[in-house]
């Protein structure tokens, strides 16, 4: 940390401390066990993770003044998944890009935030350094879960009413799946080829939440994975991961296509389709990863609709007993 940055941070901290004296605050215990004095009505929030913090903020009606993001090969910054899920990105909003990994502490300080939200599982730099700029709250998605983050963010920003509407809509969407599909008698799974192995999750982000909340059955091998965890398995495990319907994803933010998703599985098991019932039976569903993996209530709605359109009213070949 440079002397110039330290002095700037201390000066800004002093300024913000004076402002805070005139701003109503309250205590909040974050996921690092720290008791942080935060503004009762924060106005200038900087978010240090796009997927787990920035998208929930936007969906709750709170636009941060700054956000961590990613960059394209050409160096253009973007908020991962946000364009397709919220319609908001750096280029059509006043949200300022504050770096990727690590974030740019000087860029954060220049925005003069009154609150900083931190995901500890991302490279945000030094927490003590960040906290000299403004109150910094640690919210851990590995503790709360993808959608448990919404509850904390709604509490911090006073947007509980908005969250209640999002939850009610999602409950109606899940009820629709259950009405139209006999989920308890249909098995599903989500797999992904990664570096020559098969990645599988107990609950794969938003898509996994929809499938489990709707009551679909998962393979025993998947249910045995601890909740919130995932495993990378060798090719020999493919048969244990088969189901009536298998979902596979690909990254649209890196310009992948469905062919890439298939290619990653081919790297694990050449000719894998012959060994996977769902694929042989044309019951392997390939979906963009941005919608399936992001913590987004819009994404949940899109996924419930996709599940209904792919499975309801369809004749399919069940897994052999």
Structure commentary:
With 321 residues, this protein is of the alpha/beta class. The chain is 40% helix and 17% strand. The model has no long low-confidence stretch (mean pLDDT 93). The chain contains 14 helices and 14 strands. It has two domains: 3-158, Nitrogenase molybdenum iron protein domain (Rossmann fold, 3-Layer(aba) Sandwich); 165-311, Rossmann fold (3-Layer(aba) Sandwich). The longest helix is centred in the middle third of the chain and has 21 residues, at 160-180. The strands form four sheets. A five-stranded parallel β-sheet has the order 7-4-3-8-9. The protein has a five-stranded mixed β-sheet with strand order 12-11-10-13-14. A two-stranded antiparallel sheet has the order 1-2. A hairpin with a 5-residue loop joins β1 and β2.
